[in-house]
Each structure stands twice: as structure tokens, then as C-alpha cells.
């Protein structure tokens, strides 16, 4: 007799980390890179405020190949690199090279997540202070199109994050 195949989606490493730390989350699938604004409409239909969906930006400070940091902010907001550099006492910060992200964080563009990065590297992780208005936020689950929605404070505490101003 043949065994039944289960149509269960395999958990990502990030979801396993959340499970190990007893942090509840919900899985979501959003195709922001492919669908753009229509993905935001889909999120709103599911009762999710688009400003609470975060992107994870990897920055390089002072052109030092060992000085990286991570900033998480709403998909709808922009980042002010000069402001971030001033706040963190860096001469300058630049976007990390997208072509080299896999070597820097272990993720390709679109998969970066504060959860995985915090467990794979010692990069400091910062969150846009504006997300403090939300009880829950969504971040990448370490796979393109896959997100987890969880308690904001639990996420910040898990990754030892700090809040900063990322734009004026």
C-alpha cells in the first residue's frame, strides 16, 4: 500500500528558530517583488496594515569589509543613509552589494531576514522607530515570497535589536 504524501510546507530555518524560542507566528505568502502594489492590496484584504510589513536592508559602514549592519523598516518607507550614519557614529553607510549578499548574510536579495541574520552573523540590527506603533509586524521567513507575522517586541528582543530614526 502506498504512503500518503503530506502537502505540508517545509518550515524555514527562521520558523524553526521562532519555534525553539517559543515565539508564536503566522506564515504568510506575499509576492511583493513580483506583484508590487497588488501585494499590498492583498495584505490589506487579510487585515494586515502594509506599513507593518518590513523589508530588511543590509548596509556597509565606512567601506570596511567587516562593518555591516542591518536596518528593518516598512516596505513603504525610504531610508536616509546619512541620517543613519550620523546616529550610529559612522563616517558613512552604503547599501551592501546585492550581488554579494549571499556571502555577507547567507541570503540572496529578497530573502534577508533579521531572524536568520542575527543567528548567522554578529551584525547589529536596527528597526525604524515608526514601527513601534504596531503590535505585530511581518518579516521575511528566509525564502522569497514567504513571511512570518509575529509580535514586534518579541522579534526585537530575539534579534537584540534597537530602534533608530531611519528617515526624517
UniProtKB/TrEMBL annotation:
<dbReference type="GO" id="GO:0002161">
    <property type="term" value="F:aminoacyl-tRNA deacylase activity"/>
</dbReference>
<protein>
    <recommendedName>
        <fullName>Cys-tRNA(Pro)/Cys-tRNA(Cys) deacylase</fullName>
        <ecNumber>4.2.-.-</ecNumber>
    </recommendedName>
</protein>
<dbReference type="GO" id="GO:0016829">
    <property type="term" value="F:lyase activity"/>
</dbReference>
<dbReference type="InterPro" id="IPR004369">
    <property type="entry name" value="Prolyl-tRNA_editing_YbaK/EbsC"/>
</dbReference>
<comment type="similarity">
    <text>Belongs to the prolyl-tRNA editing family. YbaK/EbsC subfamily.</text>
</comment>
<dbReference type="InterPro" id="IPR036754">
    <property type="entry name" value="YbaK/aa-tRNA-synt-asso_dom_sf"/>
</dbReference>
<keyword id="KW-0456">Lyase</keyword>
<keyword id="KW-0648">Protein biosynthesis</keyword>
<dbReference type="InterPro" id="IPR007214">
    <property type="entry name" value="YbaK/aa-tRNA-synth-assoc-dom"/>
</dbReference>
<dbReference type="Pfam" id="PF04073">
    <property type="entry name" value="tRNA_edit"/>
</dbReference>
<dbReference type="GO" id="GO:0006412">
    <property type="term" value="P:translation"/>
</dbReference>
<feature type="domain" description="YbaK/aminoacyl-tRNA synthetase-associated">
    <location>
        <begin position="41"/>
        <end position="157"/>
    </location>
</feature>
